[in-house]
């Protein structure tokens, strides 16, 4: 998968992209991340990418010309081809607090694309013509405001990349994650079997995989019931799951 990132702060990205799972995925050719400096597409003496807002007010606004040119250049488009027809195949995503809130379902949706363009906002915001005539999607990572879209872009890259085949060492690792299966993930334990008097559950040491699977499912249900009960309303639960939830409710009362 190809990620194209458009930013005013390209120096933010290397330290994360050159670490751990993402680094290995890049080295193995499973993903590629190209970071484009929007300032390179501003042609005045000072490479100006922002200006004061029409109508007054605080802050600065990202100018349309360098943003359009940067994205059109990456897509191999001429200026008269915008809004880009390629957008039906290649999502052009603005990272903004006004976007749809990012979740695992959106990560799954995006993982089916071969190429994604990510535009990192800065300052007070972007010229509205970028939103209306260039970007095809807007994504937020939560109901709060950051100083720019760089961190959200990295979060999106990480969440989408780990869903791709062979990126994780465990082929089923992403399927068991919290939210991926509609529930919070079950507890994990490793050696030693006893630490400071606290023991790992006997069932995990039993070697009985059927019992282990049942325990893990019930623990995921238990954790979700206590921490995120809202998720249970949207999750496809089996008859056994529903019986277990009812027992939990009875204990609560």
Give me the secondary-structure category.
alpha/beta
Outline, from the CA principal axes? elongated
Low-confidence stretches: none
Q: How helix-rich are the residues, as a percent range?
A: 25-40%
CATH architecture of the largest domain: 3-Layer(aba) Sandwich
Distance between the termini: 50 Å
Strand order of the largest sheet: 2-1-6-5-8
Described by strand count, sense and barrel closure, the largest sheet is:
5 strands, parallel
Name the CATH homologous superfamily of the largest domain. SPOUT methyltransferase, trefoil knot domain
Key terms:
single chain; alpha/beta; 17% strand; Alpha/beta knot; 2 domains; Trp Operon Repressor, Chain A; 11 helices; elongated; 10 strands; three-stranded mixed sheet; 253 residues; five-stranded parallel sheet
